Amino acid sequence: MSEALARIEKRVIPVLACERLPIRECLNRVNNEAVKSPRKVPPSPNSAMDGYALAIGSLIEGSIAELEEIGTAFAGVPYIGDCGPGQCVRIMTGALVPVGTDAVIMQEQTELSENGKVRVDANHRVGENIRQAGEDIEQGEIVIEAGVRLSPADLGVLASLGIAKLQVKRQPVVAFFSTGDELMPVGEPLQPGMIYDSNRYSLYGMLASLPVEIVDLGVVRDNPDSMREALANASTKADLIISTGGVSVGEADYIKPALADLGDTEFWKIAIKPGRPLTFGQIGNSIFMGLPGNPVAVMITFHQFVAPAIEVLSGASMKPPLLVPARSLERMRKKPGRTEFQRGVATLDKDNQWQVGKTGKQGSGILTSMSRANCLIVLPDDNDGVEPGDMVSIQFLDWAH
Ligand code: AMP
Ligand code: MG
Predict the structure, then answer these.
(1) Phi first, then psi: what are they for 8, rounded to 5°?
(2) Inter-residue contact 170 to 31 (CB < 8 Å)
(3) pLDDT-based confidence at 401, cuts 50/70/90?
(4) Of 21, 51, 183, 217, which is most buried, counting CB atoms within 10 Å of its CB?
């Protein structure tokens, strides 16, 4: 598994082209150059609370000071003028701290005396409730590295710096097709011996949640010419081509010869279950990934290999899978030698620890085992079975909540 990922990382060349886009359109896109802050955030000291701004020097040790309120500072409308000893300024959250003051006392910690003075005790310190200039971001600081996928928080950070547009990598174009003489499109009555093509829908769903351009090339029939034509066509359009089916040995295995004609391919038998056969290679400038036909294997191999390949292609770095420990609620039979991905439902127990059970039958054609799952239970090569109460690793499915 890890060797396959390392080979993908080595072979996949990130897209080079960039575009400058308004920052909202940069969400989930890959940042091209490190962003250095042109200014401090916040630009000037301001209040973190509604209260009174004053000089700590105006307070009286062991006693209550009574200060004269000389005006109000609002966010966006500063108090103009100095605040002297014995004086204070009413201040709102986000308002600039007036000249001559060095602390903001929360309203709740003050009292108004009968003659309108603001009463404050001496238990306060310089800088209290003041957000200092540059406290969030210093001028010149790198706030977003190159190669980072931009999150909602990143958009906020860019906006806080006044940056309206950003250079991001072009989105990779991903084309996909199903192969099989038995496949029928949804919307037509099912003919004897045929099945509906589900892989293009689960694939579409997984791709739609990624920042890529999607090209659906439909169903390709099991013959060498159609296969070759489909691959040649896809390679003129896409950075990544994904097919499903037609890669298992013995049957209508037309992907292999078509690829041998058109490109440079590696056929892998990866020691995973489900999803053993996976084809990886290149046609012209396009990366090709031939997934197995079984619907569960399609989703698992996409999750484990295609999604990381798309990360690299997008110009981001491959992230190691996030594995979370969970206590198994069930016995799981397994022989050593392959990494197995069981479909699971993880819940929190009464001590807030993850526990996990399987989603019923686990065959590689049982797609409902996937739709009912919120995680994959990852049983490594050397695992030889799980007993109830054993700890296992789970990987949450990003589309399941
Ligand atoms: P194959 O790898 O082409 O032999 O396919 C393995 C199994 O997956 C067979 O039972 C196929 O009928 C099934 N299969 C292949 N492609 C699809 C698809 N697009 N949708 C649903 N099932 C499929
Ligand atoms: Mg087939």
Answers:
(1) -60, -45
(2) no
(3) low
(4) 51
